[in-house]
Amino acid sequence: MGRREESGQQPGDPAAARPAPARRWRPRLTRPRRSTGVLARRRARTGMLLTAPAFALVAVFFLLPLGLVVYMSVHNWPLFGQTRFIGLANYREMLHDGTFGHSLLFTAKYTAIVTPVQIVLGYLLAVMVRRKLRGVGFFRTVYFMPVVVGFAASAYAVLVMITPGIGVVDTILKALGLDNGQTNWVTSPGLALLVVIVLITWKTVGIAMILFMAGMQAVPEELYEAAKVDGAGWWAREFHVTLPLIRRTMALVLVLTVAGSVLAFDQFFILTQGGPDNATLTAVLWIYTTAFLQYRFGYAAALSIVLLILLVILSAVQIRALRGGGETD
Amino acid sequence: MASQSAPSSPALVALPVRPAPAARSRGWRRAGRVAYYVVAIALALVFLFPFAWALIRSLQGPAAEGSPPTLGSLVHLTLQNYTGLLGSGTTLWHYAGNSLIVAVGTALLTGVVATLAGYGLSRLRFPGSGIVFVVILAPFMVPFQAMLTALFTVLVWLHLNNTLPGLIGVYATFQLPFCVFIMRNSFSAVPKEIEDAALVDGASTGSILGRVMIPLARPGIVTVILFAFVFAWNEFLAALMLLTSDTRMTLPVALNNLASAAYGRVNFGSLDAGAVVAMVPCLLVFLVLQRAYVRGITAGAVK
């Protein structure tokens, strides 16, 4: 509420928006107070009006469900029929729900594998496309293209590619003598995870590449020249000039990849359905299953609350990492 | 790999940098460049392969799709998979139409709402505008995946489940944090003096926004609309959850139906055709508006 009063003191005062170098006292001669007040009040009202649609959308489709998810989590809430208050029973059940714990662990494992892969490959691609060479724009575009297509569409394309017996992946591996052309990629946990990781890397590494590239191009050229004069070779310049100066970008890529992986759903739902034997079940996939295949809305809401708390912590770390990185640089 | 071949600044030219024999270093440099292009082109082929493959396979008839690809089968092309029916008597284009409605609807709604809110929050501060800004950004911290059942229930209450407008509302809401953020920054980047001049000339807030501010903030608006469109066109989970009747499904959900038709034989040709139709609009839009897209990615980075 303190914030509200603070901004209420000078509604719409143009000087408030500008970063005044120092708060020097100035005689208010040029601006008659009353007329600015009317204008400012009108502009403030317009401001409220302009933000109202956005606020309404957020209230209906975000704040309302956000409150409801908490409410639902302490209820027995079947898809049809009476809802019943059951206190913390859903949360108690969660503690004994091995599948949920398992799905959280798998999500963590998936994130732990995907993140370094994205960072290393994204960095290497950025090194390739950051220079000014003929055709480099073409390569940038091509490496980035998978980013803009959907997870679902690309997962279905991959699903066809890995179909045992008729998919192109088996066909190529068979031609190379590496398998018998009948490998079922989603019935072994290791292979299923491998397929998803290859898909995700192809699909999203372009984001890391573009971010790293932007970070690298912001490093002043003089630093490289100075390092060269000091006799630093390519590797030395990379490790002692580029890497330290793009720490912030590194943190950003890390955080983006982690946030994306924690919410992983499409690729697993489409390619593995969480199988074999729940070996590739992610947290969101398990929540979806409890809600829309078992129709246990209340329990799914309780699971969602855990995920929600994890995500908020992650966002807080994210904001801190980005802010903090900027200040120490 | 060749070393950085950037032009050195004039002051440094005279300094004795690396007294290596010139001929040898030039040879190495050329070899490095050739190696660079070999690697870059090979990678480009790897990145393009899934697109190209889905396209090629989608253009083959029913005879080819159930057997492993052979060089002979790849040359017999037909549009059958694009013109036939998917699943229960609906064409691919019907679902693509639904996707287009949702994507365009989301893009327009998000574009308008984010522009208005961005301007309001950037220039027309009002009591509580700080709180409103935080509330509008909140869906960024808590994505919809963390409240699936509640979101579903709210849409049932509003009779908006299984409707395209309901889906548009959900998409727009969860795109707002990013888009309002972009628009607020775009408006804040416009020099205050321009607006003041219009204000002195007696322009109303509406005409300042329409005639002065929006034209100046156009790059931001393009980015916002582009992101909303691509997001809505591609989104899978919310659509899967909310759309239940076959004729209302968006393309990704329809593909899911097609692929999980476990009893019959999955029609791989149609699945590839669907994947191609689902990918092409995004790729086209990206190729045309590349700058706006990359600007959006990096703008999210500097927040």
How does this structure look, described?
The complex is a heterodimer of chains A (329) and B (303). Chain A has a domain at 89-150 and 204-328: MetI-like fold (Orthogonal Bundle), CATH 1.10.3720. In chain A, 72% of the residues lie in helices and 1% in strands. Chain A contains 15 helices and two strands. Chain A has helices spanning 2-8, 14-17, 33-73, 89-96, 98-129, 136-148, 151-161, 168-175, 189-217, 221-229, 234-245, 247-262, 266-271, 283-292, 297-328, and strands at 75-76, 84-85. In chain A, helix 4 (89-96) packs across helix 15, helix 5 crosses helix 14 (283-292) and helix 9 (189-217) runs antiparallel to helix 12 (247-262). With 303 residues, chain B is mostly helical. Chain B folds into two domains: 10-58; 82-301, Orthogonal Bundle (MetI-like fold), CATH 1.10.3720. Chain B is built from 16 helices and two strands. Chain B has a two-stranded antiparallel ribbon. In chain B, helix 12 (218-234) runs antiparallel to helix 15 and helix 14 runs antiparallel to helix 15 (268-288). At the A-B interface, helix 1, helix 2, helix 3, helix 6 and helix 7 of A face helix 2, helix 6, helix 7, helix 8 and helix 9 of B.
